[in-house]
Structure formats: C-alpha cells, structure tokens
Amino acid sequence: MYFEVLGPLVVRTDAGEPVVVPDTKVRTLLLDLLVHRGRPVPADRLIDDLWGAKPPRNAIGTLQARVSQLRTAFERAEPGARSLVRHGAGGYTLDVPEDVVDSNEFERLRGNGELAAALGLWRGPAYADVVDAEFARTARDRLEELRLTTLEDHLELRQTQGDEVLGEVVALVSDHPLRERLRGIQLRALYRAGRQDEALRAFAELRELLADELGADPGPELAAIHEAILRHDPGLSAQPRSTVPMPLDHLIGRDQAMKDAAQFLKTNRLVTLIGPGGVGKTRLAVELATKATAYWVELAGVGAADVVGAVAAVVGVRDDSSDLPARVGQALRSRPGLVVLDNCEHLLDAAADTVRQLLAEVPEMRVLATSREALGLVGERLFEVVPLDDDSAAELFTARAIAAAGVVDDAEAVTAICRQLDGIPLALELAATRVRGLGLANLAAGLDDRFRLLAGGRGVPERQRTLRATLDWSWELLGADERTMLRRLAVHADGFTLEAAAEVGDQPAELVGRLVDRSLVVPTGDRYRLLESVVAYGQERLAEAGETARTRTRHAAYYAALAERAEPQLRGDNQCTWLERLDQESANLRLALQYASPQQALRLVNAAAWYWYLRGRLGEGRRALATALERNPDPSPARAAAMVWQVGFTATAADGSNLTEASESALSSYDEFDEPIGQARALWFLTATQWAYGDPELLMRRIDQAIATFTRAGDKWGLAATLSTRAQLAITHADLPAMRRDGEESLRLFGEIGDGWGRLQAGYALIVAAEITGDYPKATGYLQESLRLAESLGLWTEVSFRTSGLGRIALLTGDYARADELHEAARRIAIEHSNKSAEEYAEVGLGLAARRQGRLDEAEERLGKWLTWLTQVGGIAGVAFVTAQLGFIAEQRGDHERAAELHERGHQAARELGDERAIALALEGLAGAKAAAALSRPDDASAAVFTEAETLLAEAEALLAEAEALRRAVGLPLPPAERFDVDRIAGVISRARRRPSPGCR
Known about the structure:
- This protein has 1001 residues and is mostly helical.
- Among the domains are: 2-139, Orthogonal Bundle (Arc Repressor Mutant, subunit A); 161-230, Tetratricopeptide repeat domain (Serine Threonine Protein Phosphatase 5, Tetratricopeptide repeat, Alpha Horseshoe), CATH 1.25.40; 255-384, 3-Layer(aba) Sandwich (Rossmann fold), CATH 3.40.50; 390-455; 480-542, Winged helix-like DNA-binding domain superfamily/Winged helix DNA-binding domain (Arc Repressor Mutant, subunit A, Orthogonal Bundle); 875-1000, Serine Threonine Protein Phosphatase 5, Tetratricopeptide repeat.
- The protein has 48 helices and eleven strands.
- GO terms for molecular function: DNA binding.
C-alpha cells in the first residue's frame, strides 16, 4: 500500500491500483494515523480530531465503526492489508514502513540532492483534505517549510547553471514577501537579466517591509548580495561561469559515498578525500562541488609558491602583495562557498599552509581537498575513497562497455574483469574501451595474463600494481606514434590545445583524437587533458625513452612563442579573446618558465608581462620577472625591458615604496642600446604606473620624450597610451584644455585600434574634466560607459575606480547615502583585488562624505590613515588634499590652532606641487582657521581682543578672495556643488561680524 499526502489524499496498492477510502471521516481518520505513522494514537485523541467539540453520542462505538470501514477498504484492495491498522494499549496505529508515504520519499530525495524529483511529488498543499485540522498543523507546516526550502535550493542550483528563474521566483516572492532567501534569488535573477536598478529597488522595498512588519533589517546574506550588486561582483554576472569541471557522465556506484561525504562537509570545515590514483577522488569531488557554491582550484602543474595564487585566480583576487591570503580571505568572506583543492599530494606543505590561513580568515568557509596523503592539519576529516564494490564495478564497466561496443552479454566475463581490476574506476574505464576490439572473453584472458607478468612489486600496494598493469596493457595496444604522442602530452600542465599537442609532441594533431577514443585523453571543450594517473604514467614512459629534457624544451619554446604571439593581440580588438586564452594557459606559462633557457625566460616574461598587468597578477609577474632577471645577469635590451616591468609592477602594487631611484636605474639600462621604441615604452610605463605619486615635472619630461618617439615612429598604440598618461598628468596641474585635448585624441586612437583597456584609460581625464567644471551628467555618462567596459574585460581594479567616481558624483550632488554605498562597494573591490591606490581613492571618498554629514571622528579616521602611505609613495597631491581635509575637520570642531597648523602643511605641499587648485584649497582652509579663531573670542572680550578678531576676519576674507582669484586665473572657478567649505567659512565670517563690539555692550 502506498499513501500520498502531498496534496489531496491518494491511496494505491503495491501494483499502483487506486484504493477507494469512503466517507470524509474515514479519510480524516487515515490522515490522522498517517501524521502519527508508526505511533499509537489514543481513541480520545482521535475522537477529538475527527469531531472536535461535537462528538457523536456513542463516540467510541462510532470511532470503531470508522476504523472498521478503513480496514475493509484496505482489505478489498489488497488481501491481508486490514492488519495495517492495529489496536493496542496506547490506541490505534497505522503500521506501514517509512518508504510507502510520499512525504517521506520527498525527504529522502531531498536529502540525496534529487531536488527536481522531490518537488515533482507535490500535487498541492500537504494534507490538503485537512488544511484546518489542528492535528495536522505541525506536520503540514514542517513539510511546507521543507518544500519552500527545497524550491529555494533548486532555484539556486539552476541559477548557478545559468537557467532563467526570474518568473518563478517573482511568483513565489509575491506569496512569501518576507522570505529573505527567495529575495536573494530574486535579486540575483534581476541583476543577471540586466535589471540592476530593479534589483536595488527590490532590496529597498524588502528593507522597508521588514522594518514595518518585524522591526528588523535584512540579514547578512541578503545584505552581502545587495553589496555585491553595487560593486558589480563577477560572481553575479549574467552568464555565470562555474570553475567546477562539468561531469561528462553519470556517477555510478557512489550513492553512499556521496551521502557520507556530504555529511562530513556539513559537520567539518576541512574534508580531504584520500585514496590511490585512479580510484575516483576527483570525480567524487566534482559531484559534491556541483551541489554547492564552489571554487574549483586545480593544483596539478602548480608550484608550491603559487598555491595561494592559484586560489586567488579562481576567486578573482589580484596577486600583487605579500598579504595575499588575507586578501583572498576578505573576498571569500563576502561570497563564501566551498573551496575545492584538487591534486594536493605533490605540494602538501604549501597546500596545508594555504588551507590553514583561509580557514582562519573565513569562519563560514569549507574546504574539500583531494590527495593521496592527508594534509596533516588539526581538524582535518579524512574520507577514504575506496574501490567500487562488485556490483557497482560491474555496473560501471557494463555502462562504459555498452557505450564503446554496443552490447555486453557475458556476465561471467564481466565479473572476472571487474574482479581482476579490483574495482578501480580508471582501470574499468580503460578496459571497457577494449571490448569492441577484443570481446569480453579475450579481454578477461588478456588481463589475467598481464597481471601474472606484473605480480610481485615489493612495497607497492596491490591496487596500484593493478592500475599500472591496466595502463601498461593499454600502452601496448597503442601504435608507436600514439605512444610517442601520449608520453609527450604528459609535460603539459592543466590541459592543452590541439595546436600545442602537435607542436610540443612533434606529432600530427589527429593522434589526440585517437587517444580520446581510447579514453586516455579527456576532451574539455576546445581543450584536452590527461587524467592524473595517465600523466604520471606518461612522464615515466617519457623518461624511459630519454625524451624528457627535449620535450620540456619544446614545451618551453612553444609557450614562450605563444606569449609573444598573444602580446600584440592584447593591445587591440582581440583583447578579450586573448585574455581568456592566456587565462587557460597560465599553468603552462608557469611551467614553461621553469624549463626555459635563460634567453627564452626573458622572452616569455616580457611577452606575458602585459597580460599579468591587465589581469592584476602582479605578484606572479614580479616573481617570474625576478627569476628571469636572476638567470640573465648580462645587459641586454630584453633584460632592460624586464627591469622596467618589475619596477612598474611594484609601483602599481603601491606598497609604500618610493621608486624614483629604481625607475631611473631601469631606464638607464637602455642607455647603451639603440632601442628607441623600447625606451619610449619604458618611459611611458614607468610614468603611467607612478603618475599620481611621482615628481610631476620629471614625469612630464618623460612622457613628452616618449610622445615624440612614438610620433616619429608612427606607433599608434604607443601614441594613444602616452597621450592618455599626459592627460592624467594634466590633472595634477588642473590644465583643463590639456586634459580634454590629450584625452579626446587618445580616446579616438584607442577606438580605432579597438583596445578596450586603452579606452578606459583615455576616458579618465575626460571624466575628471567634466567633474571639475560641474558637468555631472557628462561625468556620469563617461563613468557608466567605463564601468560597463571594465566589467566586460574583467578589469576589477578599474571597476573599483569607476564605482568610486560615481560615488564622488553622488557626493557632490548631495546624495550622501548613495555616495556611501558606492564608495564602500568600491573599497571592497579594491581590497579583494589588492590595489592600494583604488582602496585609498574609495576610502577618501567615504571620509569626504562623512565630513559633509558631520561624522567628524569617522572622517578623521578614514582620511588620516592614508597620510603616511601617501608620503611614502611620493603622493604629494594626495598629501596636500588629505591634509586640507584634516584641517577642515579641526576647524569644524573649533580647534582653530590645529586647523591653522594643518592648513599651513597643506599649503606647503600644494606649493611644492605647483597645483593652483591645491594652493587655493589650502588658502580657503587658512581662511577658515582664521575665521574660527575670530569667532571663538568671548562676548566680554576687551577692545584689543576685538580688534585682533577684526584683523583675523579681514585676513580670512582676503584669503578667500585670493583663492577665488587663483581659481579664476586658471579658468576653474568652483562649481556650486563644490562650494561647501567656501560657503560654510563665509558663514562663519558673517556670524563673527554679527557679534557685538565692546562699545555696544
């Protein structure tokens, strides 16, 4: 008998025939017994549930009659079934197993992750026939809550797979408007549909609803989604790109392992799947990762020094500082999930150190590792992935053999093969591909012979000898050219293209397809990879053939040439395509550098440096450049270029170093070579990476020299880049015509070339020019377009700067709440991508907004923390500006002496800089300090004090007039939105003048 309660009551026989249960009271009785399945329900409780306050005259007798009717209905449908309803000392019991009730089946399927099947059992509300009955309320509410949770799980899973769920979730939200998880799915769906404004409005509506209904704020998870939308988090992109490898086939024989491992992950923060090669650790990890928000980090081909860098690349964090683990942790705190580290055995210490730091940084994060050995960390839970049992091994082998040969009809041979292969999945997969050529009987006999030949091997576990035997046997069935290709493919890291396979292997590319047919090479889109065990086996065969050194040399040569081929493509309309191509080849580039000749190493790092710079992988680039420079001590143009890259990367990281001397040294390394274009690019790059912090006059001389060289050479990209940088330098001098002239010409040239990054750079000076003149609509238009471009290229530091730019516009137009949201979003992006300059720009914006809103302590803390850093990196303009803001804070507090001291410092820095706008700002600050001093005189002051105050006010007015004249002289009077302090100080002067004089008292 089978019972369905997820909707109107349905009863069926084991054969599926419907069972008629007559009378409403009998159906209610059955539902009551189903609610308490397996437990006795007292007669008086059943009477109360069926009839409430109006029981029949002979209640016990009537109940017994209803029970009899129920038993009769069961008996008619299935002889002997009347005994399902038993009566004992405790009352009546429905004695049926758990799996014959659809609500229990729903919970089982849900627990197994079969969400669609679980939801498919629902036909309406749970216990729909007794929606008002008190006895069913608890069970009904629990099931309805589980249904909603499962719907949310399923919607989130589909959302991670790129499905459109907006229509479904909107309907659910209308029924459950306060359910925050549904709202989170709605916000992501709206954002991915390109409806960011609607997503933000939906969040605002929920916030208001929660406040009105519950007196509460949105929870941290929903707030994190809201914040991610504001900062344009790549994890919310319209077409999510999961880093988890998509399985190509159904997982067989691991149902219990899946349940157990999933339970381990629920109760432990670090779970390591251990077992021999080929046993299926990675495949099980893939299946677990597909059921979670996961970051898949492939460590095969990664060196010990680059483990945390590999995690950073997957999470989307710039690798450019020594505190990278903390930066990765900060990123994961805002979007936590399951981090999967696959193939840890060759770098156990480095992997363990990375995991230890990440778990400490992100309390809500979990880590799943695969390794042949434990990581050895406190709190690590080991899960041994064992070979398949006999039945599962036979199921796996049969499924794969049918796919390869079409028919499998010899059960005895299958059993023999699976027994001889000890249930190792990889061995079964490889053997199954031979069925078509040999047949099952011959395959079984061949395996038996092979094992006898290889028996013995002291110190090697039996399962590993079995796998080796399978690989040996598969190897011997290959032709000579296939063997050559397979062993040479083993030098690649993290996959390869057909072109790479042919070039490095020095063999025809079609051999890869033949190896795919033999399940020795796995296709992954337009790339290919070898399974872990096949890599190890191939490398041993490569060594036996004496080809390791030669093949690694070809590998290094190919990837150095690939980097050189890619470099010019990164400066034009193929930029996105080649960025993605080099993303895929990062592991091969790292590996190539290890085996490259000294000259190849310089070629490789100089070609790959622009890629590392665009992607923000400054730490990786600096390490690679240092390696190449150490191996090439003799002067050469290539060595000079590498030195320039290294200094520029250090400058971009902005770690507090003043790099003037290092820059001069790098530039002087060109002196003995006739390399005008190389020297011009060096002049440009070192200026572009230090324009906001270096000596403005020196930087302008450098950029003018580079412009002249590029103009003579007809180098359009070089000219566009240098004009963009000169436009930025013009910001320092507030030279509005130069900013517009150079910015617009650079934008035009980059547009002709099709370089998206270049258009971003060229647009910056135009944005600043529009802001300076108070043309906020134009500035906003430039910023929004730049923001879209930066997101499309995955340039997240630029996203941070442009988001801060929008925050500045919101600040200037008086929308302080929006300004705070945007600046905070930009600050978090900058931190996640390890860019100090972007972080400083965002936090200064938060400080400015805090000061305008009267939060002086917060403003002082946010602004003051950057003074030391700005001084260290030579950021004179920043020092002048921040010092002025701290002076205004002191003045607003009434500390006019401290204000005067700070504004004097700011005035000195501004004069050193030679920026008229900065000098005017300092003069306005000094005016405010003098006005505050005059206002502070007591009402009963003497005539002398009054005269002194009058003198201070006159000086303040003169300073304001001098500042205004200076601004007008350079054609940049303050727009209305930037007159906050000038108008405020004028008000202080007016109030001070209204104070009574001694003669009026």
